[in-house]
Amino acid sequence: MAEAIKGLIHSTESFGGVDGPGLRFVIFTKGCNMRCKYCHNPDTWVLKSDDLRTADELLDLACRYKEYWGDEGGITVSGGDPLVQIDFVLDLFTKAKKRGINTCLDTSGEPFTREEPFFSKFEELIKVTDTVLFDIKEIDNDKHIELTGCPNTNILDCARFLSDNGVDMWIRHVLVPGVTDSDEELYATRKFIDSLKTVKKVEVLPYHTLGIHKYEELGIPYRLEGVSAPTAESVKHAKEILGAEQ
User: Fold this and answer.
1) Parallel, antiparallel, or unpaired for β 52-54 and 6-16?
2) Residues whose CB is less than 8 angstroms from the CB of residue 209 and which lie 6 or more positions away in sequence, other chains included
């Protein structure tokens, strides 16, 4: 008998209200290839955890709250970036669907590739994924590399693949003053969003500094020192350009 796949877990949240449709049980996994300057969870970057759990263990825990989910709720896997642990997420979502649980994947699309063995696993994963919360960090590739340490060519390809295969998406964009808020880039992002066929919702997430203390605790330099949260007016302006809900 094959040994059960275990996920490297950062934490869980019993009643997530902003992590997909309805009320959701949220599983935060460890591991991320990007190093976004504004990331508020640098403690999820490293693919290492003392908390290893199987899909069944997590689903048993999640189902304690199932009566609160209603028609839209379910489980969301966030990170880090869950695609770094694609074998575990595929196992989790496959077993979740067998229990009749709605599944949501919160990802930035890295490390998506059409190369094997990742691509076949991803194709199987989206068959058991109801909604993808998809972060578009920065539309310009060079600026994306500067912001995250990674190119966005494979990330945008991931979004197109999801669209072409009928997977519902919520597009998210973090608005950072002086970094991701220029009209030129917002309009370019809107053009890309409009090229996708399955976008159900667009969200603008205002930059905040709530995670700075984690950088201090981890001894990691915070690279956006002095950058303030965007004004309500700039958030409203970005929402108008991107077609996000006000």
Assistant:
1) antiparallel
2) 227, 229
Query: Tokens representing 5?
Result: 């796949």
Mean pLDDT in residue range 157-180: 98
User: Which domains are assigned to the chain?
Assistant: 6-242 (3.20.20.70)
Neighbours of 98 (CB within 10 A): 10
Q: Where are the beta strands (DSSP E) in 111-190?
A: 131-135, 168-175
d(CA 223, CA 28): 24
pLDDT level of residue 2 (50, 70, 90 thresholds): confident
Whether this prediction's pTM lies above 0.85 is answered by yes
Q: What's the DSSP call for residue 129?
A: -
pLDDT at 1: 64
φ and ψ at 163, to 5 degrees? -60, -45
